[in-house]
Known about the structure:
- With 144 residues, the chain is mostly helical.
- The chain has eight helices and no strands.
Amino acid sequence: LPQARAGIISTVEVLKVMEAFVNEPNYTVWSDLSCNLGILGTLLSHTDFYEDIQAFVRDVFSPIGERLGWDPKPGEGHLDALLRGLVLGKLGKAGHKATLEEARRRFKEHVEGKHVLSADLRSPVYVTVLKHGDSSTLDTMLKV
């Protein structure tokens, strides 16, 4: 994206390159993609292209989100937990339906005391339910 911001290459070309990383398992790569897509989302937030970039985020992040899932797997390392939080947060903010539904379910269970959210899932769950919630969600969050 820095090359696109400098006018060296088009944003479309950068997005095509980003799609090539869909099977990448490395946290650092996904962190960089997330950051750059966040910048692009901010730049497009008040344009007709905002929903298009959110759809792109959902398309790019969905495969890694499905592979990681919501719960840790035996033998996972610290970077896997960080990657899970990053990916689920990005999907939730982008309005990924399955992520939104699961975040709402986990938030409800957490608030009702049925299940404690793990530390690595609190941020993506809270951000997702707040972004797509209402004043009641905000009131509930303020009591947590």
